[in-house]
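Pilot study result, target chain (370 residues):
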Amino acid sequence: MPVNRSTFLRRGIAVVAALPLLTLAACGYGSDSKDTNSNEKVAAGSKKIDGLSSVKIGYFGNLTHATALVGREQGLFQKELGATKADYQIFNAGPSEIEALNSGAIDIGWIGPSPAINGYTKSKGTNLRIIGGSASGGVKLVVNPKKIKSLKDVKGKKIATPQLGNTQDVAFLNWVADQGWKVDAQSGKGDVSVIRTDNKITPDAYKAGSVDGAWVPEPTASKLVAEGAKVLLDESSLWPDKKFVITNIIVSQKFLKAHPKAVEAVLKASVESNKWINANPDKAKAAANKQLEADSGKALPADVLDPAWKSIQFTNDPLASTLNTEAQHAVKAGLLEDPLLKGIYDLTALNTVLKADGESTVDDAGLGAQ
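Predicted structure:
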């Protein structure tokens, strides 16, 4: 039976699982992160924006949040914020970031589509807006090549997804249904056994033979490949133009209304970060990995970093139509009542920044705020 919306919302987690990072801070939300390089220092003579002493920014410590990683490592957020300090918190899961946004522990955050949808619908559209895009792609079905040699061989096997109702779980259930196979979404039992496993332990589960494959985001997919798994399917191949949202930028509605100039400054830095990433992919990859190491104490090895990076596209476009499609996939799987997403986007500030930069504006697929 379909679960009600509130049950699903309690279970939903982030679209991506972070690397093992720092322990949770005393606030119970994310890990506070200190200055790690001279680029984060406030420039002499700069002025505060909107009278703010700081803007609190949240992100996950993984490559699908590289816009935030690179923007921070290159000092772009601090540059645009002037004398208003860019403070950061690092998260491992979507619900904790949404809680932090709701409590005011962060103002703006990078997050996946499922927790953004969940947070918005749970608050009846009062807590957040999606104000920009960040990344597309970076999700793969990777399998044990000794047990699974073709897509049809997935039937009858044990496939890991991060958690019941998260974005990859929904995507896999939708793909299974498209094959004509039956799986009970709640139990994961059926023609395929769906094993909900935290991304941090999925590589160990794979090595132990507890799962035969996994539908997971980067860098987990490339970690499995480094253990001998093979990529059977890249999820981007299932989407128009091979693009689908994996990371959004959200802001609390209260902060957006009170401090529009600060929001615009963060978005300008995000646009600049994506521009630099796309113009300098190798340098950007190194910068993202450097920030990961600063945040977690451990950089990704090249055999994980390189293939993971190649599978992610960085874009300012929030790819709003794909977010709506992902929500409908959850409805189809029986994991979500039809959500009311009208108003989840406010792309006004982003389009202002894009126009000023000579870039094409982006669309909210009819889901914009009035």
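One observation from the pilot: The longest strand covers residues 128-137. A full batch analysis is planned for the follow-on phase.
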